[in-house]
Specification:
This protein is α/β, with parallel strands linked by helices. The protein is 31% helix and 22% strand. The radius of gyration is 16 Å and the shape is globular.
């Protein structure tokens, strides 16, 4: 089975982790927004510059430009009214910027729990059914053991929903074969395509700087928005999270 080849922006990666750092003892979920690298020739060409392989319409070849925090109270399942609201909001917001909903990121409640639960798998299958034909739902599994401060290495394993088996544990990011590891690059909002590549060390520095700036105490999700509708959980640039008073 083919693996997920993903190029991620440092901002998307960092925001997904900040959501987990804010709620370290609760199950966390959010959605991933970006561009499938085979959607147009420009994106595919830029993907080659960023070290990602372009491919035939699968989310296994994509650029994740942003992460949208959603839930931190209970493991999300389907059907669920809140999941419907989240899907509609994120899908609409992505379309307005010429992008797509690519997948989700998830983190379990317990430190050593490295499996996708049957409840979460049901939610993933429901979202997969809404993806375009021949497109696989991207899943970022965040390993709680790797959420150190400062970060010592990658904390996310990138795969697709069809590879999430509740009976099998997901390996640590350090145990993932090199060809399946995430790569990083800047997102060019003018061309809507990947830009310059970023090293893993550069991404670790971005996460560390965000933690030093207490950005994890400022990031908000849909659960927070429900409690306070004035909170805009869809638009949270990392730069604003790091400087907001």
């Amino acid at each position: 089975m083919s693996s997920a080849t993903v190029v991620a922006s440092p901002e998307a990666y960092t925001k997904a982790l900040l959501h987990c750092y804010r709620y370290p003892t609760q199950p966390v979920m959010g959605m991933l927004v970006g561009k499938r690298l085979s959607e147009d020739s420009t994106a595919a060409g830029s993907a080659g510059q960023s070290g990602a392989a372009s491919g035939g319409g699968s989310s296994s070849n994509c650029f994740v430009s942003d992460a949208v925090p959603l839930f931190h109270t209970l493991p999300m399942t389907a059907p669920s009214p809140m999941l419907e609201v989240a899907y509609s909001h994120v899908q609409y917001a992505a379309c307005t910027t010429g992008q797509s909903l690519l997948g989700v990121y998830i983190a379990n409640e317990r430190l050593l729990d490295n499996k996708v639960s049957p409840i979460t798998k049901k939610m993933l299958d429901a979202l997969q059914s809404r993806m375009p034909s021949q497109t696989k739902l991207l899943v970022w599994f965040i390993n709680n053991e790797c959420l150190t401060s400062p970060p010592m290495g990658l904390a996310i394993v990138s795969l697709t929903a069809d590879r999430c088996n509740p009976e099998k544990g997901i390996p640590l990011p350090s145990q993932v074969p090199a060809e399946e590891s995430m790569t990083f690059g800047r997102w060019n909002s003018d061309t809507l395509a990947p830009g310059a590549p970023v090293t893993e060390e550069g991404v670790m520095e971005t996460v560390s700087n965000a933690l030093d700036a207490f950005a994890h105490y400022r990031i908000a999700d849909l659960d927070d928005h429900v409690e306070d509708p004035s909170i805009n959980y869809l638009e949270q640039p990392l730069s604003a999270l790091m400087t907001r008073k």
